[in-house]
Amino acid sequence: MDVRLTIDGHEAKAPKDMSLLDVVRRVGGEIPALCHHEGIAPIAACRLCLVEVRRPGRGEAVLTTSCDYPVSEGLEVVTASPRIRRHRAMNLQLLLPYAPDAPALHEIAESLGVTAPLFAPVTGAPLPGCILCELCVRVCAALGYHALAAIGRGDHKRVGPPFGRSVATACVGCGACHEVCPTGCIAMEDTATTRRIWGRELELFTCRRCGKPFTTVAHRTVMVARGDIPAESCDLCETCRSRDYARRLAPVR
Amino acid sequence: MAAKITSPDQLKALAEAAKAGLNVRQGRKETQVTVHMGTCGIAAGARGVLASFMAEMGEAGVSDVSLHQTGCAGLCEEEPMATVTHADGTMYRYGLLDEAKVREIVQKHLLGGEPVTAYLIEA
Amino acid sequence: MTMTASRTHFLVCTGGGCIASGSLEVSQAVRAELEKRDLAGEVDVVETGCLGPCVRGPVALVYPDGVFYQNVHVEDVPEIVEEHLLKGRVVERLVSHAPGTDKTQAEMTDIPFFNRQVKIVLRNCGIIDPLDIGEYIARDGYQALAKVVTEMTPEQVVEEVLASGLRGRGGAGFPTGMKWRFAQQQGSDVKYMLCNADEGDPGAFMDRSVLEGDPHSLIEGMIIGAYAIGAHQGYVYVRAEYPLAVERLEHALNQAREYGLLGKDILGSGFDFDLEIRMGSGAFVCGEETALMTSIEGHRGEPRPRPPFPAVSGLWGKPSVLNNVETFANIAPIILKGAEWYASTGTEKSKGTKVFALGGNVQHTGLVEVPIGMQLGELIYDVGGGIPNGKTYKAAQLGGPSGGCIPREHLNVPVDYATLQELGAIMGSGGVIVMDEDTCMVDIARFFLEFTQEESCGKCTPCRVGTKRMLEIVERICNGEGEEGDIERLIALGETISQTALCGLGQTAPNPVLSTIRHFRHEYEAHIKDKYCEAGVCSSLFKARCSNACPANVNIPGFVSLVAEGRYDEALRFHRERNPLASICARVCFHPCERKCMRATLDGPLAIRQVKRFMVEQETTPQLPEIRENAENARRKVAIVGSGPAGLSAAYFLARLGYKPVVFEAEPKAGGMLVQAIPAYRLPRKELAREVAMIEGMGVHFEYGKALGRDFTLQSLRDEGYEAVFVAVGAPRGMGIGVPGEDGPGVYDGLSFLKDYNLHGTARVGTNVAVIGGGNAAIDAARTAIRLGAESVKILYRRTRAEMPAWSEEIDAADLEGIEIMTLVAPEEILRDAEGNVTGVRCTRMALGDYDRSGRRQPVAGHDPAFVVEADTVIAAIGQKLDAAAVLDGTPIELDRRGYLAADRKTGRTSVDWVFTGGDAMTGPSSVVEAIGAGERAAAGIDELLTGANHAFWRRDIEPPTAFDPDADPVPVERHTIEELPVAQRVKSFDEVELGWAAEVALAEAKRCLRCDYGKYHAEG
Q: How far is CA C456 from the centre of its chain?
C-alpha cells in the first residue's frame, strides 16, 4: 500500500513503512548517512541522516533520523534546515578524527560546509579508520556467519572477532565486510593463492573455467552446502557464471 | 507448604486473622495501659502483672488499647501498679495488682468501659 | 495454652545500609539477650526493610511506643533490653535530638525526618518482615488484586490508574495509565509485563529498598498491571549487584506462588500470570527500556530506535509494558483506596508521592517519601535536616547523571516534574545529591559526565564520541588548561548530543554540564580565565586550600611552618609578601582559610589566626619583605583616598614597587573601619598604629582631616597632577530602620555610635539598650554598650541565629557577656514619652517564610500580637551603604546595580581609567582581608596603567623553606583553644578579650599543619 508524503514541499509516493531515507534517495534527494545499507536493517548509529518530520495533526516538527523512520500517510519532511545541518555537521565533526582520510567523510563534510576539523585526529585506535557504523558486523550476521561482533562499551567500543579474540574463527573470507565498509578500514589482502582477513589466512578458490581466483575455498564450501545456487555455479567466478547463465538463456530468446 | 488461596474471601479471612499479630505495630492507641516497672515494681511482681495484661488482652481480643511500661511512680508501697490512660487525658491508677485483678480490669474497664474502683489508688 | 501476641515488637532495619553497619548482629544480640532475661515470649524481634535514615544505622523501632533508636550496636543491646524492653524507659543516648539542642525526640512522630513524610510506596517498608507474606497480607496486601480480578474489567483498571494521575517514577514521568492503555489495545495473544529494577544512578537506592523491604508490593502491582493489559508472563530485570534484593524477591515470588497469587487461575479468577527474575550485569544503559528488552532477549544491551514503541512491539516483538519498581508499588493503594484518594496528594499536574534518596552533604542521608510538590528547601532542611558541619547549601543535583542542579536561589520551588524541567533538572528516579560550599560545580559536572561517558553503550556517534569530547574539555578546565571558547564548545556539543542521541542516556548525558553552566557559569569562567577554583576542589589550580580561600592569597602553610620551626621573622616576612596587616588580621580576620583547612577532616581545623597572633607578637623590629626602589615610580603622583585596610594595602604594595603614594584620610587617625568601628577589645589600637607606622616608614605620606567631596574632589586631584587615584572610602553611611519614632534623641546609627566612642570618646548610653541588627556592627555596638555601663543590652534580629551575618565567635562572645539576643523580632515603632525620650521598641514576632536568593529563609510577620521591648537607647545597625554622589562629585564613574562603584575585579579599574577602587566602596560591606586583597590588586592595576606592564613580583609562589616529612602519619592533636579574659573583667574595660599563646602551645598548633602544599611547587620549574 502506498502512502503520500511531502519532501521539502514536493509530493511523493512510497510504500507504507519504507525507510524515509530510502524514499528520499529514490526521489533523488540527498541525505548523508554512513551506517545505512538498503539491504540491512537500520541501527541509526551515525546520526547523520537527520531530518525534520511532522505527522499530520501533530504540532511541531521533530528532529529524527531518517534511516529508521517508517513513512506514513501525510508525513511532511524537511531534509535540510539550518538546525539539521548544524547537528549533522557536529556529528560529522565527531566522526572525522577517527577517519580523517576517508573520502566518504570528506564528501559529506563538503556538502555540509565543514572546512576545519574541531577535534584533533584520534591516534592509537584499535582499528584505525573505523567509525563504528557496524555495517561489517551486520552484513556478516545477515550472511549467516556471525564472525564479527561489537565489543566493549562507550569510547572503548570496537568491532572485530567476538570476545576480543585476534582471529575471526567463523570468517570464511567472503569479503562482504570489506565491501560495505564506508571508510575502507577493513584490510583484505589477496596473494596468488591466499586471502588474509581478520587474522585468518584462507586458501583462494580458482574459477573452474577461467582459472582466476574469485573467492576462498571456505566460502565456496558454504555456498555449496547452502545450495542457494546450483553446485556447479559455485565453482565459477562471477563473470563466467554470468556467461554461463546467458548461454543457458539463449534458446528462449 | 501453605495451601493455595482460591478465592478473595479466603484471602480476606487470612488477612483478618493476621491483623492481630501486627496490632502492636500500630503504635500508641487512644487508651493505654502502662505497667510500672521500676526496681520496686519488679520486686513486687510487676513482671507477672505485665504478662497477665498481655495474656488477658490477647485472649479477650482487645485491639484498641496499647500496653506499655514505665518506671517507678513514686508510690512503692502500692506496687505492682498500672495506669490506664484515656484519650481525654483521664488516668486511672491501679495498685497492688495480681493476676485476678488484672483479669477484672481488662474485662470491666478495658472492655466494659467501667473503671474497677476497688483497686484504684486513693489520690 | 492460648497463643498470646507479644506485648512489644522490636523492629530492626535490615535494609542494605543497616546490614552494612551491623544490624544483623544487633538483631541476634537482642534475641539472645531477651532469651537470657526470659523475655523472649513477651517481645518479638522483627527484621524489617529500610526505615529510611540510613546514615544513622543500624536503626531500630520499638512498638507500641513508637520509639526510634539510632546507631544501635551490639554493646548497646543489654541496656536497651533492660531499660526499655523490660522497664519501659527510653535509652535517651540512642534516640534522636532536636537539631542544636539537648531535647530528645524519642518517638518517631516527633522527628521531622519522619513526620513530614507521606508513605504510600514505602507503606510497609520498615514495618513488616519482608520474608513473611503473612505480614504483607495483614496490612491489606493482595486485597487490591482480589478486587481487580473479581470486580473490575481490565479497562476499568486502566481507567483508575489513568484517573489517579500516576506518572512513571523511573525518570521520564510518562503517565502510567496511558502506557497501559496502549498495550491493552494491542490485539496480541502474547504480551509482557516488565519491571525495571536496574537502578543505576550513583546514590540512588529507592527501588532496592522496596525490593528488600516490601517485595510483595511490587509483585501485586505487576499482577494488576498484567491483568489490565492482558499479559500472562512478566519479568523483573534486577541488577546482579543487588543480591539481597534478588534473594528477597525470589523468596517473595515463591511465597506468592505457594499462596496461589501467581501462576494459574489466580484467586480462582481464571487469570494466569507468572513472573521471573532476569539479572542484569549493571550496565547503566540497560535502564533504558529498549536496551533492557534487548538484554532480556539475550543480546548486547543496546537501545533500539523507537518507533516502534514497546507497547506495540517490545520484548521479542510483542506488546510490552515496562514500569519501574516504585511505579508498581503505587498500584495496589490506588486500586484499593481509589484514584481520587491518590490524586489528593501532590500538585495539580503531578499526583502522589515521590521517594527520594537523599545523599551528599545533608544531615539525614537516607530514603524518604514525600508528597510531590514539596518545597525543595523543606525537603533538604526540614526532612533532610540541613547541611552538616555549619556549611552552607550550594546546590542539589536532582535526577543523578541525567539530571541537573538547583542552586540556592531556587530553594522555594516545588519539587514536581514541570518545575524541575524548567530549571534544567529532572525528577529522575529520585536521587537527590545535596552539595555544600565545598563542592566545585565544574568538578561535579566532570564527575557525572565521566559516569555517563563510561556507561554509554557506544552505539550512536553523539553519545559515544560527543560525551568523550565534552569530558576532555571539562577535565581540561578542571586542570587549569581551559581555553577561551570552551564554554561555548560545551554548549554546542551538549545541544547536539541532547537533540540527536539515540536513547535517553545520551539525550540527558549533557544535562549536568549544561545545567551547571546555566547556574554556575561564573565558576567555569573563574576556572578558565583566573585558574581559580573557589570551592578548593580542583587541586591543580592551587597549592593549598587555605591559601586558595584567602582573599589576600597569603601563603599559609609557608608562614605556619616557619612558625613551627621558630623562625618568626621569616614567617612574618612570608606573610607580608601578600598581606601587610598581619597583626590586624591576627585579631579581626574572619579566617576563611580555617573553613577550608583539611585538618578539619581529621580532628579540627588549624587555628591559623591564633598562630598568626603568636607570630606577630614576636616582632621586635618591623619585618618587611622585598621593596624595589624605582626613581621613576617615585616621581609619579598617586593618590589613595581612605586609609582603611584597602587603602593601607594599596599604599604598601605601591611602595614595594617604588611609588611614594599619598593617602588622604577624612578623620584624624588612619585605619578607616579598623579604627572607627572595630572596638579596641578586639583590636588594640597600638597594633593598628604599629602597622600604619610600618607603611608610613616605606615612604607613604598620610594627609589627615582631608575628606573627598568636602576638602577635595577627584577632579581636583587630577588637576594637581595625580596620575592615578585609588578610591577606598568604604561604605560608611548607616541605613535607617524606617519606622516611626526613629528620628530624635536616644536613637543612634550603629556606625556613628561606634565612631563617636572610638574616635572621640563621646558616645553615651542609658541603662536599657536595644540594638537592632544581626551583623558584626550590631554585635560591636552591643558589646561596646555593655562596656559603657549599660545594665541591659538586647540585640533584636528579625531572623534566627543561624541566619545572623555576624561571625559566630562574636555572637558567642556577646552571649557570654550577658547580651540577650532576641531573634525573630522586628521593630515596628520606637516609643517615646511626652518629653520625647525613648521608652522602648514596639516589636512584631516574625516567622521564617520562603527562602531568599541567598538561600536564607526570609522573615515574615507572625500572627502573635505586638509587644514592647523596654529601652532608653536604641542603636540601629542594620546595614551600611555608600553615598556615591558625594564621593564622585560629578566624575562620571559607573555604579553597579546596588549603587557601589563598578570596577574590574582583577585590577579595580573603574570606567574612568585613572580611577581605581576596592574594598567596601566596590563590593559593599565586606571583610578586612577582602579589602586587603583588593588593595593589592589595585596597586598592581595602577602600576600597570602607569608603566604598561605588570610588576607584581610578589605574586610568585615561593616554596616554604621548611622541613616536612610527607611519609610521617599525622599525630592526632586537637585544635588548641584560645584563652579569653574572664567575662567579669572584660565587660568593665576595653582590654583585649583574646589572650595570646605561650610558645609551646603556638608551636604545637603550627605543627598540626598537614602541609597540603607540599610537593606542589616543582611544576613551576
A: 30
| pLDDT confidence band for A252 (50 / 70 / 90) | low
CB A77 within 8 A of CB A83: no
Q: Are strands A194-197 and A188-190 parallel, antiparallel or unpaired?
A: antiparallel
Burial of C832 (0-12, 13-18, 19+ CB in 10 A): middle
SS3 C949: coil
Judged by CB atoms closer than 8 Å, whether chains meet at B26 and C9 is answered as no
Among C701, C743, C711, residue whose Cα is nearest residue C829? C743
Residue carrying C-alpha cell 607603611: C695
E strands present in C228-294: 233-239, 274-280
pLDDT-based confidence at residue A174 (cuts at 50, 70, 90): very high
Angle subtended at Cα C135 by Cα C108 and Cα C226, rounded to the nearest 5 degrees: 110
Note the pLDDT of residue C4: 59
Sheet holding C233-239, edge to edge: C274-280, C233-239, C192-197, C320-324
Supply the CATH classification number for the domain A2-112. Answer: 3.10.20.740
Query: Phi then psi for B22, rounded to 5 degrees?
Result: -105, 5
Q: How many residues does chain C have?
A: 1021
With residue C225 as reference, give the H or E element that holds it. Answer: helix C215-229
Q: Structural domain boundaries of chain C?
A: 8-115, 133-343, 353-541, 545-624+958-1006, 632-674+694-732+882-947, 734-879
| Whether pLDDT at C1 is above 50 | no
Q: How far is C1009 from chain A (nearest CA, A)?
A: 42
Does any CB of chain C come closer than 8 Å to the CB of residue B14? yes
User: What number is the average pLDDT over the span A95-101?
Assistant: 95
A155, C300: Cβ pair inside 8 Å? no
Spatial separation of the C-alpha atoms in residues C190 and C313, rounded to whole Å: 11
8 A C-beta contact, residue C552 and residue C560: no
pLDDT at C570 exceeding the cut of 90? yes
Q: Which fold has domain C734-879?
A: FAD/NAD(P)-binding domain (3.50.50)
Reduced to 3 DSSP states, what percent helix, strand and coil does chain C have, rounded to the nearest 5?
40, 15, 40
User: Right CATH number for C545-624+958-1006 from 2.60.120, 3.40.50, 1.20.58, 1.10.1060?
Assistant: 1.10.1060
- In CATH terms, is domain B27-119 a member of 3.40.1410.10? no
Backbone torsions φ then ψ of C651, nearest 5 degrees: -60, -45
pLDDT, tens digit (0-9, with 9 covering 90-100), for A112-152: 999 999 999 999 999 999 999 999 999 999 999 999 999 99
pLDDT greater at residue B1 or residue C332: C332
CATH number of C133-343: 3.40.50.11540
Write the DSSP assignment of C112-162 as a string of letters: HHHHT---STTSSTTTS-TT-HHHHHHTTTTHHHHHHHHH--HHHHHHHHH
Contact by Cβ (8 Å): C1014, C966: yes
A31 touches chain C (CB under 8 A): no
Contact yes or no for C459 and A43 at CB 8 A? yes
Task: Find chain A residues with C-beta within 8 A of C449's C-beta.
Answer: none
State whether residue C945 is helix, strand or coil: helix
The answer to whether the beta carbons of residues C611 and C1002 sit under 8 Å apart is yes
pLDDT for A59: 81
Cα torsion angle, C151, C157, C163, C167, sign: positive
Cβ <8 Å between A94 and C458: no
Helix axes C645-656, C928-947, angle to 10 degrees: 40
pTM of the model: 0.90
- Summarize the confidence of residues B64-91 as an average pLDDT: 87
Mutation test of the interface with chain B: which of C65, C83, C261, C265, choosing the one with the most B Cβ atoms within 10 A? Answer: C65
What mean pLDDT comes out for the span C787-795? 94
Q: Are the beta carbons of C889 and C709 closer than 8 angstroms? A: yes
